[in-house]
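Thread: "does anyone have the structure for this chain?"

Original post by V.I.:
We have the sequence but no experimental structure in hand. Need at least a predicted one for the grant figures.
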Amino acid sequence: MVVEERKTDYSEIVGAVHLHSNYSDGSLSISEIAAIANTTDLDFLMFTDHNTLEPKRHGLEGWYGNVLVIIGCEINDSDERNHYLAFQIDREVDTNKNAADYVRSVKRAGGFGIIAHPSEKRNFSDAYPPYPWTAWEAEGFDGIEIWNQMSEWMEGITRRNIAWRIIHPLRSIKFPVWETLERWDDLNRKRRVVGIGGIDVHAYRIKIFKIIPWEIYPYKVQFKSIRTHLLIKNHLVSGEKRLSFREAEAEVFGALRDGRCFVSNYRCGDARGFRFSAEGERGTYEMGSRIRREKRLRFKIHSPLSGDISLLLNGKIIKKLRGRELVFESGKAGVYRVEIFRKRRGWIYSNPIVIIE
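Reply from O.Q.:
Generated one for you, tokens below.
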């Protein structure tokens, strides 16, 4: 399918995806969490309490100050594996179904579904086993978490470093799992699968040495970790005016369904202003575009801060430089995306522009 010339003056919003509240195993209420988000310069939150849409039925979706709250749920199969973030549905999915069935159910209901922590691996404690996605035969999922912050934090825990990782949680953020990125590239060769970043925040409360109260990864701290940036067509908030909840929700899911988004590690710097596009004879194309092959396309990358910029084709680097701008021409078909490193850590991961034969 050929995509026509795209609008390029999008508005950028930044949010946190994959949040748990006290409706499941989070430690605070949705209103308390939203109040914290209003102090951390976020525009939207996407809640996914386990196997429940009770907060949605209780009318908790909406605006909290200048933060938009969207409510979905996190589904799993009877073995507690194959976790799936489901949005824009009004009823819970039967947890006795297998993964392929509930992916299909979400799609039939007109919902939007994202595979959670697909490559999770850890063996630190039997109490916290990994929950990877194994049901790759499922059809109809819309997206995949290319970076899950809580999974990365837990996967690196050892008996020697656990105290350090609890006290300095943001220092554990380094890179997405390569296996996930590789599979994501392969999926996008066939169809659009949007990549998002999830924080999977719970803010567990514990007692160190059974006496010192401590919160593992407080919401305010985790809001400064992995962020998902969306390019939307209309401003959510402009001065004292703002879109209605339904209008704003449509903007969010319009960007997600089109793949107009990228993921950033806020600890390496604020990634607002990053852009990745391609210019050709038929127009200008943004992230998420799937277009027919042209003789020559001019890929343009702008970074808001200096970093190590890589343009990848089908998972392999084809151009790399240090700076804030990269321009590259290519006529080859394939999946083009951007990775930027700063401070020897992953910083920005774009959704792809896909050239098809």
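V.I.: this helps a lot. The mean pLDDT is 91.
O.Q.: and The chain has two domains: 11-232, 272-356.
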